[in-house]
Amino acid sequence: MSEQQQPVFSIEKIYVKDLSVELPNAPQCFLERDAAQISVQMASAGTAVGEGTFEVVLTITVTAKVGDKTQFLVEVAQAGIFIIQNVPQQDVEPIVAVACPNILFPYAREAVSDCVTRAGFPPVLLAPVNFDAAYQQRLEAEQRPPEVSVQ
Predict the structure, then answer these.
(1) What's the predicted TM-score (pTM) here?
(2) Each residue's pLDDT tens digit in the chain (151 positions)?
(3) HSE-CB for 135 with a 13 A CA cutoff
């Protein structure tokens, strides 16, 4: 009887890969009384760095603008090294695209909030993200045939 190895999923390291804070209109931005419009962009990517070892990077960019002037721009690339072994190949992508970003998100959210506060603004508290729904939407978009416009 052959022994089947147990699936392995573990976190080897969580770290900030890149961090940027920009205040292009300081100090005038601190004199602004209007509320800023906050936009958040998010992306994640996974790369195999060894046999069963993956680096996953969750990048969050937060921009605050009043009118056409940027108050601040914060970008955090929160990364992790994950061991994923003895898992069926078709299950690796969902783990890298959903489970790993779910683990990284609280760290990235804290880094964003801390950077915004240290820049002299009230903290930005990012709402929870459903990475599973985002992954499913991406799969559906990839499976849809491209739209053809007829003129």
Answers:
(1) 0.88
(2) 445 789 999 999 999 999 999 999 999 989 888 999 999 999 999 999 999 999 999 999 999 999 999 999 999 999 999 999 999 999 999 999 999 999 999 999 999 999 999 999 999 999 999 999 999 998 888 887 766 666 6
(3) 19
Place of tokens 């958040």: 40
**Edge-to-edge strand order for the sheet containing 53-66?**
8-22, 69-85, 53-66, 37-50
| Rounded distance between C-alpha atoms, residue 9 and residue 6, angstroms | 10
What CATH code is carried by the domain that includes residue 67?
3.10.420.10
Asked whether residue 93 is domain-assigned, the answer is yes
Domain residues for the domain of 67 are 8-143
